[in-house]
Amino acid sequence: EKGGYDYFMLKEIAEQPKAVADTLLGRIDASGSLSLDEVRIPVSVLREVDKVVIVACGTAYHAGMIAKLAIEHWTRIPCETELASEFRYRDPILDQRTLVVAISQSGETMDTLMALRHAREQGAKVLAVCNTNGSTIPRESDAVLYTHAGPEVAVASTKAFLTQLVACYLVALYLGQVRGTKWGDEIEAVIRELSDIAAAVDTVLETMEPVRALARSLADKNTVLFLGRHVGYPVALEGALKLKELAYMHAEGFAAGELKHGPIALIEKDLPVVVVVPSPRGRSVLHDKIVSNIQEIRARGARTIVIAEEGDEAVVPYADHLIRIPATPTLLQPLVATVPLQVFACELATARGNEVDQPRNLAKSVTVE
Ligand code: F6R
To answer: Which residue range or ranges hold the SIS domain (predicted)?
Structure first.
């Protein structure tokens, strides 16, 4: 049932192009608009929303961090993303005009469930983004947008994460569409480009052999750092989380701009540092900033592993290892940039002799608070 793969995780990584395509299926109509009829929250209610709060745990929380950037950009509605386990203990400000988005693969995560119960008690509307039909979180929400990743067996989340991102982009674009924003043209263009994303993920998967070889060569390292900015920051956190849970290595993700405020003290000779580089098109300021971050860490001896868009030549002189990803719109880049990090962690875990599908101390579904 592993379909010829050694591990479920490898199978699930390979299934990502299909998972992404399936999650888009039937949600974009012939005219290129979104039709999310299953989101049974009336358009009149969505038009009145004045704040979005996203709650989730672990990998789903990283999807939520990216969703915040997409929602605020395309809708101009203030949005915050919070760890579900922290949320209700701080007495959050919620009312009928708050839309809470609860993201969960399993639909059974107790922290997320308790957060959404708290939100509904305060009168907020809750939209679940979930991969498991009929599970508790969608049953207790006002509406649900299902991700169509299919069953995810490996404890480390991969295809569910990519489909959570797709679903979150759909929510952001849909909110933009029903409310009308100045980004109308961009929203139409991004909806079109989403249709090409499955093929882009496939392209990444075809070029992963050097990433596997690199991972094997780092099997005796103790620490790997991950840096990113904007959408690349949650991708860095996700890369670090995958490495912790699978390879049991010390792995940390940082916002690259924070380096000089502390973490740069960690840089020493031969320390592997993965850097997620934003597109040089689009927000080029961000790109230039991260190129100087790469120079800074390399000058201090770091071994730089650079994930950059095809055609980005500015990073070449500073990359000890260069991992190419297809060009995408800025906000969609996590869909392609995360994939090499999944492969990297999986291969490192294998090289270190760890059980890939069942990491120690972890469970697939965390039904205790
Ligand atoms: C990491 C991982 C966990 C889950 C988290 C939330 O690979 O799988 O961090 O993402 O436990 O689980 P769900 O999405 O089921 O609520």
So the answer is: 42-181, 214-359
